[in-house]
Amino acid sequence: MSGTSTSQNKQMLLSIGALSRSVGVPTSTLRTWERRYGFPESIRSPGGHRLYAPETVQTLRWVVKAVEAGHRPAQVLGRSLSELRLLCGAGESSSVET
What is the mean pLDDT of the chain? Predict the structure, then answer.
């Protein structure tokens, strides 16, 4: 039964291409941010491909919003979702359009 849970968890993970399309950030930029700042954090498939948790999409959308507002990636990457919302001038209940 735990094998089924593990395979379901892997199916929910996003490839770097899917993450890129979801947030509008090139794959090369995502790789650079991961290498330089440790975010977005990925796990590796047995073949060495980067895989990301679905929750990463929402956080990265806020990162993109902060960068577009003039903040540097080093200032915003790795911050919590609530910190990013405050940095962008949004309240806790605000959301970024999907």
Answer: 86
Is residue 74 over pLDDT 60? yes
43-44 and 50-52 beta bridge pairing = antiparallel
What are the DSSP calls for 39-67, one per residue? -S--EE-TTS-EEE-THHHHHHHHHHHHH
The one-letter amino acid at 31:
R
CA angle, corner 20, sides to 15 and 23, nearest 5? 125
Closest CA to 41 of 63, 67, 24, 65: 63
- Token pair for residue 14? 């996003």
Contact 67, 25 (CB under 8 A): no
> Rounded distance, CA 7 to CA 57, Å?
21
- Residue 97 or 1, more confident: 97
**Closest by alpha carbon to 19, among 48, 47, 43, 46?**
43
The pTM of this model reads 0.78
What mean pLDDT do residues 45-56 have?
Answer: 95
